[in-house]
Design brief:
Elements: H1 18-42, H2 48-54, H3 56-75, H4 80-97, H5 102-109, H6 118-126, H7 134-144, H8 147-171, E1 177-181, H9 188-193, H10 197-202, E2 203-209, H11 212-221, E3 229-233, H12 236-241, E4 250-255, H13 264-277, E5 278-289, H14 295-304, H15 314-324, E6 331-335, E7 341-347
Parallel strand pairs: 1-2, 1-4, 2-3, 4-5
Antiparallel strand pairs: 5-7, 6-7
């Protein structure tokens, strides 16, 4: 069985209410899951992972239609009871199918004031599937390969390149090059950079995180840096706000995910505080999702996974830096190939 056997029909959602339209999509997804399960039991089309990959286009199409309907219902000003019924219907069934999916359940159960979860970050970065029952594996494959997640993974080689280039450029001026990582995440970028001996010998890096377990595991993984890398249990918002820090100012401040997850007020304050922690000519570098992030995925992440991703346009960032640094011209951007995500770079004069 492959996707050529399943016609890519789009339901006529306009001919009935959104609750009925959602029910049809969920029934179609149920049938799709059952067909893959039946093929797996029969053993006629290869192992389950191969079946899931062969049918991923149909899974993606149905899930995107579910997300698009969720978005449309939320944006169309439907009565609150209709919105709740559509959302609860989708959540109940998708949560049941995702019963053994760590991606779905860890995201839903992570505290909203936790910027990320170490296990989730590692799973997303490594595109690591977890096993579990068939429906969970099918949906896990979708979650891990959403454009949002693929774009997140693409940030890492780009930020590795920028950190290496900026460090090499500054080594002749400042040695060691002082770097502040606002939130450790999985420290995957530093693991990649550990292979660059010149980089390791040129830097002194401070990594912040509120999770002591994440700090401990990253310290064990990054022993190659020795005393050039230190970990501090701290909230980045409080750390950069601390006045009159005794240490020398930083040459580079960066984060991969933090500004995806903090609101506008906190973002503006952190941008202003980071300015005060940078040396002249210092660089602030971070990742952020763009408003062109697919609306269907935003709805699935927001409505079903209960996680709001903060997407900001280039113009929005220019306005933030105009307010906090007094200079919107200091900002430049690097978009990924699908324009879903961007790196924001701001250099202090």
């Amino acid at each position: 069985m492959d996707d050529s056997e399943t016609p890519l029909s789009v339901p006529e959602t306009g001919s009935s209410g959104p609750v009925e339209a959602m029910q049809r999509l969920l029934d179609e997804l149920a049938s799709h899951i059952e067909r893959i399960e039946a093929s797996a039991r029969a053993g006629l089309h290869g192992p389950l992972p191969r079946l899931i990959t062969a049918n991923e286009a149909t899974t993606r199409r149905i899930m995107e239609e579910i997300g698009t309907l969720l978005h449309a219902v939320g944006a169309a000003g439907e009565p609150p009871d209709v919105v709740d019924r559509v959302r609860d219907l989708a959540l109940a069934r998708i949560a049941a199918w995702s019963g053994t999916s760590p991606v779905f359940y860890q995201v839903r159960n992570t505290r909203r004031d936790d910027f990320n979860n170490f296990e989730i970050m590692v799973r997303l970065l490594e595109n690591r599937h977890a096993g579990g029952d068939t429906s969970a594996q099918i949906l896990d494959h979708y979650y891990l390969n959403m454009e949002t997640c693929s774009s997140f993974r693409r940030r890492f080689p780009r930020i590795v390149r920028l950190l290496a280039d900026e460090t090499a450029h500054r080594t002749a001026i400042s040695r060691p090059v002082r770097i502040l990582n606002l939130h450790t995440s999985a420290c995957y970028e530093l693991e990649l950079l550990a292979r660059n001996r010149s980089f390791v010998e040129s830097v002194q890096i401070t990594c912040l995180d509120r999770d002591p377990a994440a700090l401990r595991r990253n310290r064990q993984r990054l022993e190659r840096y020795g005393t050039r890398l230190r970990f501090i249990k701290a909230d980045a918002r409080e750390y950069v706000a601390a006045p009159n820090r005794l240490e020398a100012p930083y040459d580079l401040i960066y984060t991969l995910v933090l500004f995806d997850q903090v609101d506008d007020e906190q973002t503006a304050k952190m941008i202003a505080d980071c300015r005060g922690q940078l040396a002249p000519g210092g660089l602030l570098l971070f990742g952020n999702y763009a408003p062109t992030m697919p609306v269907a995925e935003r709805a699935i992440i927001g409505w079903l996974m209960d996680w709001e991703i903060r997407c900001r346009s280039m113009q929005a960032w220019r306005e933030i830096f105009a307010q906090t640094w007094g200079n919107p011209a200091c900002v430049r951007f690097e978009l990924d190939e699908t324009h879903t995500s961007q790196l924001v770079l701001a250099e202090l004069p």
